[in-house]
C-alpha cells in the first residue's frame, strides 16, 4: 500500500478508535443517568450531566477530525470527497484495512443505536417525573390557596380560609 494512503488510513483509524472509546464512555454515562433518574438522585444527576457535556464536546471534536481525515483518505483512494462515506472508502481499500474500517463502522453504528434507545427511555422518565411533579405542585397550590365557589344564592363563598389546612376539622 502506498505511504500516503497508509498515513491517511492510520489517521482515520486512530480517530475512529478514539470515537469508539468516547461513545462507549457516553453510553456508560447515559446508563448511569437512567439509574439516577429512576432513583431520583438529583445531585448525582447534575454531575453526570456535566460529565456528559464534556464527553459530547470531545465527540464533536473527534468527529470534526474524522471528517477531515476521511476527506483526506477519500481523495487519495478516489472516493467521494465532499461527503466521504466510511463504507465507500472501505470498498476502495485493501481487504484487511477495508474489513477493519467496516468493523469500526458497525461498532459505532451499534453504539449510536444503543445511545438513542437509552436517551429515548431517559426522556420518557424525565417527562414522567416532571408531569408528576407539576401535578403535585398544582395540588399543593390549590390546597394552600383555598377553593373559591359560588353558592346558589349568588353569594361568594371561600373554601378553607386559613392557608395550610390540609385536613378539614369537621367530621
Describe the structure.
By secondary structure, the protein is mainly alpha-helical. It has one domain (3-158): Methane Monooxygenase Hydroxylase, Chain G, domain 1, CATH 1.20.58. Helices cover 76% and strands 4% of the residues. It has 4 helices and 2 strands. The protein has a two-stranded antiparallel sheet with strand order 1-2. β1 (148-150) and β2 form a beta hairpin. α1 runs parallel beside α4 (95-145). The longest helix is centred in the last third of the chain and has 51 residues, at 95-145.
Brief account:
This protein has 171 residues and is mainly α.
What's the CATH first level? Mainly Alpha
Named at the architecture level, the CATH assignment is Up-down Bundle
Count the beta strands: 2
Q: What is the averaged pLDDT score?
A: 82
Which segments are poorly predicted (pLDDT under 50) over 5 or more consecutive residues?
none
Helix-strand category:
mainly alpha
Q: Please name the CATH topology.
A: Methane Monooxygenase Hydroxylase, Chain G, domain 1
Coarse shape: elongated
Keywords:
single chain, 171 residues, mainly alpha, Methane Monooxygenase Hydroxylase, Chain G, domain 1, 4 helices, elongated
Topology:
Layout: H1 3-39, H2 42-77, H3 86-91, H4 95-145, E1 148-150, E2 156-158
Antiparallel strand pairs: 1-2
